[in-house]
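Troubleshooting: if your tokenizer reports a length mismatch, compare your output against this known-good record of 178 residues.
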Amino acid sequence: LNLAEICNAGWVLTSYETYRDYQLSFGRVRWSLAVFDEVQKVKNPAAAMTVAANSVNADFVLSLTGTPVENRLADLWSIMDLAQPGILGSLKSFSEDWESEGADLNKLHEILTNGTPPAMLRRLKEDHIEGLPSRSIVYTRGTMPPEQARAYDQAIRDAKSEDGGSTLQALGRIRSVS
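Known-good structure output:
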């Protein structure tokens, strides 16, 4: 990478994969701000992409995602560890405290949203932002073409059979037909 050019740029845009591949070069740059969009890409604390993102040399980190938890609550820990290292403790203690049966997730929500400033802001779909048009939902009904209906029925039968594979595979087949 041409570090002189990068250092003189007003801003730099890169993918997670490129940042991972050039982590050592990017790590030599002192950033004022790092913005991680679709930050769920760093949900796995052991992945090379997460390690690279966590090595960012920035004064301020902003993380944006519409999907903070995909597989387990530790996804949230990994994202927050990038944005505000240490706010949720170690991964081990976080998992023991929050992923256990009966954990009070409302308390976790309070920890993340009640600080000054809050560590997490969340906008719900029903929240309206001034200046944007109102959200509208339009439902349309239609009938599957016969070939698609047969494939859908077959996917359902396969899912119900003993050799239909895992539930996730079955859902994937149904989704692809739909």
